[in-house]
Amino acid sequence: MIFSVSLMGKQFSPAEVEDKTGLQLSEKLEVGEVVKRGRFKEKPSAIGRGTLSAPDHIPYEDRFDWLLGVLSEHINALYKMGAEPIQVDVGCFYTDQCNFELSPQELKALSELKIGINLSCYRR
To answer: Of 24, 4, 124, 116, nearest to 66 (Cα)?
Structure first.
């Protein structure tokens, strides 16, 4: 599984987030920057965006909890910097059957943060 957080908004700047929080984002795009792919290719972006993922040194089984911890620490600042709305994205890759389970503690953390989860399943 792949866990990430999509951050985006009309006033969102991934550079500002990295500068003020120390977090490292990938797939960064600033407002007004020319889009390089997709349906808005070669047009200025109306939104800023970035993706937050656990660093490679975080053990695979701890990455979801790492993201929840980072969000718990920075969610108010992320909203103040223009992120709207924040959700956790999960990519589940499967062969025969797709199972995804959250512990009561993880569900509670999501609820306390008032964020949703987007689950996408992909057959291998």
So the answer is: 4
Tokens (6 digits) for 9 = 């908004």
> What percent of the chain has pLDDT above 70?
100
Q: What is the spatial distance between Cα 67 and Cα 110, in angstroms, rounded to a whole number?
A: 11
Residue entry with tokens 């718990």:
72
With vertex at residue 25, the alpha carbon angle to CA 22 and CA 30, rounded to the nearest 5 degrees, is 105
State the pLDDT at residue 99.
Answer: 87
64-67 contacts at long range (C-beta below 8 A, 24 or more positions apart): 64/3, 64/88, 64/90, 64/106, 65/106, 67/3, 67/4, 67/5
Single pTM value for the model: 0.90
Tokens 């009309």 correspond to what residue? 10
Q: Name the DSSP class of 33.
A: P
